[in-house]
Amino acid sequence: MHADASVQETRVFTGFAYENSPKEAKREAEKRARQYALISGFLNEQCVLLYANSSRLAPGYYAGDAAINCTR
Predict the structure, then answer these.
(1) Whether the predicted pLDDT of 1 surpasses 60
(2) What is the rounded distance in angstroms from the CA atom of residue 14 to the CA atom of residue 17?
(3) Could you report the per-residue pLDDT of 44-64, keeping only the tens digit for each?
(4) Strand 47-58's sheet: what is its strand order?
(5) Which pLDDT score, from 0 to 100, does residue 6 have?
(6) Are residues 30 and 68 in contact, defined by beta-carbon separation less than 8 angstroms?
(7) Half-sphere exposure in the Cβ direction for 44 (13 Å, CA)
(8) Got the DSSP string for 21-36?
(9) Reduced to 3 states, what is the DSSP secondary structure of residue 43?
(10) 40 or 5, greater pLDDT
(11) How far apart are the C-alpha atoms of 72 and 28, rounded to whole Å?
(12) Is the dihedral of CA 56, 60, 65, 70 positive or negative?
């Protein structure tokens, strides 16, 4: 008997952004995480969003961070 030789690769990518609204900050952070995954050879369909957060730094200025998990 032979063990299954296929091995899946799973990686987590993070992204950060600073924008004028919480929604924009989260969206841009996720977009950057997905760009890093793309650069590493993962397809968008191979990735799922783990989280996207935003925090207010000052009036009209928000930080966003996001993480995605990719498997191939």
Answers:
(1) no
(2) 11
(3) 999 999 999 999 999 999 999
(4) 10-19, 61-71, 47-58
(5) 80
(6) yes
(7) 5
(8) SHHHHHHHHHHHHHHH
(9) coil
(10) 40
(11) 24
(12) positive
- CA separation (Å) from 34 to 2, 5, 10, 53? 36, 28, 14, 15
Give the pLDDT score at 45. 97
Query: Which residue in this structure is represented by tokens 């957060």?
Result: 53
Angle at 44 between CA 39 and CA 49, to 5 degrees: 105
Provide the token pair at 41.
């050879």
Give the tokens for residue 37: 């995954």
E-assigned strand segments in 1-72: 10-19, 47-58, 61-71
3-state secondary structure of 37: helix
At 13-47, the pLDDT tens digits run 999 999 999 999 999 999 999 999 999 999 999 99
Rg (CA), the chain: 16
pTM: 0.87
